[in-house]
Amino acid sequence: MNEQLRVGLVGAGPWAQQVHAPGIADHPGTRLVSVWARRRDAAAEITDRFGGDIVADPDELLSTVDAVAFAVPPAVQAELATKAAKAGKHLILEKPIASTVDDAERLVDAVTEAKVASLVMLTRRFAPETRELLAEVDRLGGWAGGNATWLTGALLGGQYAGSQWRHDQGALDDIGPHAFDLLDAALGEITEVLAAHRSEPDLWHLMLAHRGGATSTATLTLRLPIRPTVTEYSLYGEHGRRTLAGWASTTQDCYTTLLDEFVALVQSGTTEHPCDVRRGLHLQRILAAARAKAEGVA
């Protein structure tokens, strides 16, 4: 590469410190140049370890970078990412991309108008074992249904237990996008939330309809005392059953692949990707439909 992509990081929590900052700093195609967080001491922890300068506000960050990586709550991300896109900055986004469908649509409009690259950190989509499974599923066809299970006590203790937005929005918004994304990628576009029920402790059961006739279910929670976390995806149909369980690839490995593809998008001037901001909007609409169904308004 002739020149590294200058990346600014917005946010300095555990995810930023463990995934975004080291990933950007270590990747040959990117350089961490600026960090902004509401707590200057948290930003300093990142710059001390991984380089870059602390900036006073998001506007100063935008003046120093080619791209921005976000590790902040959805509502904050949507506002700042829309501004960044309008300034011509490429985006690495967390899921969900916003807190409302309207905000997600505004972000997509800004990205589309500015013709910038965008990727959403749908972690498992960047794992080789996931891609191998999806390629096999697509090649064989004939899948009638599937299910996703994600059971964890992440909000009962540990590094993310202090995340207020996760406590407020729960499993649906935090891990729901990952589950819906993989079911959608494997079985076809999710066209309807057929049923959704939330019980304590924030335990979600959902039934989904897919284009082409397949159906799937998802069971999600962040508040059951289950260690280690249980994650399993299964598909079944004419060719039997296929499963994806546990985590063969690390989150850091997945993020490195994301950065590989992000840099390639920017260098080539490409703005479309299976996990770009438009994918984020599709998942945002599923979240909204699920919540409405559970509340009896859909």
Automatic annotation (TrEMBL):
<dbReference type="InterPro" id="IPR050463">
    <property type="entry name" value="Gfo/Idh/MocA_oxidrdct_glycsds"/>
</dbReference>
<protein>
    <submittedName>
        <fullName>Gfo/Idh/MocA family oxidoreductase</fullName>
    </submittedName>
</protein>
<dbReference type="InterPro" id="IPR036291">
    <property type="entry name" value="NAD(P)-bd_dom_sf"/>
</dbReference>
<dbReference type="InterPro" id="IPR055170">
    <property type="entry name" value="GFO_IDH_MocA-like_dom"/>
</dbReference>
<keyword id="KW-0560">Oxidoreductase</keyword>
<feature type="domain" description="GFO/IDH/MocA-like oxidoreductase">
    <location>
        <begin position="163"/>
        <end position="241"/>
    </location>
</feature>
<dbReference type="GO" id="GO:0016491">
    <property type="term" value="F:oxidoreductase activity"/>
</dbReference>
<dbReference type="Pfam" id="PF01408">
    <property type="entry name" value="GFO_IDH_MocA"/>
</dbReference>
<dbReference type="InterPro" id="IPR000683">
    <property type="entry name" value="Gfo/Idh/MocA-like_OxRdtase_N"/>
</dbReference>
<feature type="domain" description="Gfo/Idh/MocA-like oxidoreductase N-terminal">
    <location>
        <begin position="5"/>
        <end position="117"/>
    </location>
</feature>
<dbReference type="GO" id="GO:0000166">
    <property type="term" value="F:nucleotide binding"/>
</dbReference>
<dbReference type="Pfam" id="PF22725">
    <property type="entry name" value="GFO_IDH_MocA_C3"/>
</dbReference>
